[in-house]
Amino acid sequence: MKTLSLPRPEAVLFDFDGILVDSEPMHYRAFIEILDPLGMGFPWKEYVDTYMGFDDRDAFREAFRAQGMALDETNLGKLVAAKSGAFLLGLRDGVTAYPGAVPLIESLHTAGFPLALCSGALRSDIDPIIAHLGVAHRFDVIVSADDVRRSKPDPESYALAYARLSDKYDMLLTAPGMSVAVEDTPAGIRSAKGAGLRVLAVTNSYSDLELAEADWIVESLEEVRFGT
Q1: Under CATH, domain 4-21+97-226 is a member of which superfamily?
Q2: How many C-beta atoms surround the C-beta of residue 91 within 10 A?
Q3: Would the pTM count as exceeding 0.85?
């Protein structure tokens, strides 16, 4: 296995779904459990092509928009809560980290890198998984869908995560371009780039051609070494 050695960043910001864990199929099943009874289900390929990278709110908005149906904020909140409940029930079957993800986080934490988690998932979806993986206390900052108004590809989530890291490590972080986001989707790459970050993309969910806007592309985090 070849190794990609990257220059030492000031901080590393990780996406969650598709980077730490293969949870996208679980999200898809939870969406379909809610949408199928409404006659609004869609195949996995459509989820990958259209919905992956959206937070739950924007995914439901898009599903209703595609059907030409209105969706007010009250019913949106009910749908998001129902989907979250279905997702959490699905966690009973267990979840496995992607190869290299946990060792990389542990090594970066041990080396003293400021670390953030920047996800379009709800915090209630994130917490039980990172606790199960044993990395809950490795992140200095966690930004979830609960913290922002606009989901990826909007840069709001990465800009907020970097700002919170900067507040915590004001003597270490000099500019977003000196830090690296780790992503698996085109929407996530655009979000991180919009916040001024460099991006390492992993082909867990999309091909290298679809991730071409990233600065570096790898097949697995097992291949990655950051300068120390």
Answers
A1: HAD superfamily/HAD-like (3.40.50.1000)
A2: 14
A3: no
